[in-house]
Amino acid sequence: MPRKRIVPFLACSILAFSFFVLIAFGQNKAGDDFPLTQGTYWVYQGFVRSAVKGADVGKTTRVTWKTEVARAIRRNGLTIAVVKGMPGDLDWSEGTVAPKLSAIIRSRDAKFYLIEKDEAKSVIAQIDNPRYSWNELPIDDDWFLELPLAQGKKFCDPAGMQREDGEYCWVTGAGHAIALVNVKGIPPGKQVAYRVEFRTNPDDMEFDFVPGIGMVTYEYHHHGTIADTELHLIEFHAGNSTP
After folding, report:
1. Contact 16/184 with Cβ under 8 angstroms?
2. Is 115 exposed, middle or buried (0-12, 13-18, 19+ CB in 10 A)?
3. Whether the Cβ atoms of residue 154 and residue 160 lie closer than 8 Å to each other
4. N or C: which terminus of the chain has fewer CB atoms within 10 Å of its end residue's CB?
5. Do 43 and 64 contact (CB within 8 A), yes or no?
6. What's the pLDDT at 95?
7. 41, 67 contact by CB (below 8 A)
């Protein structure tokens, strides 16, 4: 994924594969590394801070946000999920917020690509077209995740891969324990998560990813004009349908 506001999701996430998946969500199959079945949803709480004209201190708004897999299908070995309300849609720079439709594509080798905005509309419009060629999708510009995760993994286009400063590329940190307390739909206990970050000169995005669950946190921070988003998971529901 290029520098788009997800996540610019999708945040959100990692794996000591089967073992950690079973810990993270007991009845899930090991293949549910990033649950993208139709009907799956995540509910987040947190805040959005936006600039106020003429003021040095921004306005903070508490938010509850739902991210939902509206549809999921398979085409040419790819899984294509239509996702409504990726966390990056929480951009209040223009004064309004509305969930948008994005497409997440999973390749055979567990690479995940996030397609947003007008590009997502084009892909979603072709989802039922049997003659549409999926061979040109996905592209490295949209690559934001690959499982299993491990410290130091990077996801971006070839130019970003060559950068030594780690900017303009999704970069994976070390696995760490995370306590998901009072999250509806998830048994209480510690999980293993990886933080995945995308940093540029003007801003940064990051999410914590837990296998079998997905993004459990999401953050966006602008380094100039006040614009911040911080979310944490409060509810998770796994859909039952298989694409």
Report:
1. no
2. buried
3. yes
4. C
5. yes
6. 61
7. yes
Domains of the chain: 17-237 (2.40.360)
Residues 158, 148, 194: CA angle, nearest 5 degrees: 90
Please choose, from the candidates 86, 91, 76, 1, the residue with its C-alpha nearest in 3D space to the C-alpha of residue 36.
86
d(CA 113, CA 155): 10
Which residue, chain included where needed, has tokens 């899984």? 79
What single string gives the DSSP state of each residue in 97-118?
----EEEEEE-TTSEEEEE-HH
pLDDT value of position 131: 87
Ranges of residues in the chain with a pLDDT under 50 are: 1-32
Cβ atoms 84, 48 nearer than 8 A: no
- What is the tens place of the pLDDT at every residue in 164-193? 999 999 999 999 999 999 999 999 889 999
For residue 5, report the phi and psi dihedrals to the nearest 5 degrees. -85, 105
* Among 25, 24, 46, CA closest to 230: 46
Q: Which residue is listed with tokens 């953050």? A: 219
Q: In this structure, are strands 154-155 and 170-179 parallel, antiparallel, or unpaired?
A: antiparallel
